[in-house]
Amino acid sequence: MAINIYLAQKYEGPMHFASPKVLGLASQWSFWAMLEMEDLLLDLLQHRALLPEFVRDPSYAERDELLLGKPLGILNTALAGREFLVGDNFTVADLNVASILAWGKMARLGLSAHREVTRWLDDCLARPAYGRVRARRPK
Fold it and tell me: Which CATH topology does 2-136 take?
């Protein structure tokens, strides 16, 4: 997260922060996602996809999905009526938070109760740059 924020600020371009306020909000959302969702999403992904079948524990996945309800609700409320997390453009906040939430997609996280999050995440993951990154990954 810190590297993404640094690079966005260092170089002029579409991710460069127009003001200290935008930088602060982007940092807030980025680190919030790390603290509130990252560990739960990684654990969910492990118990639904990454670990060998005989090691996976469905009760862990259920617990993780239940605990993700609160931060997903917060994110859903923040995104209501907004296209992006901070300001009127895609920022490093969207990049960072969507990168973490992409694990939820891979783990079949139920997002039906969080329509704004679903819309926003689908839009983030449909961006051409994300498609180029996915195309470069070894299969």
Answer: Glutathione S-transferase Yfyf (Class Pi); Chain A, domain 2 (1.20.1050)
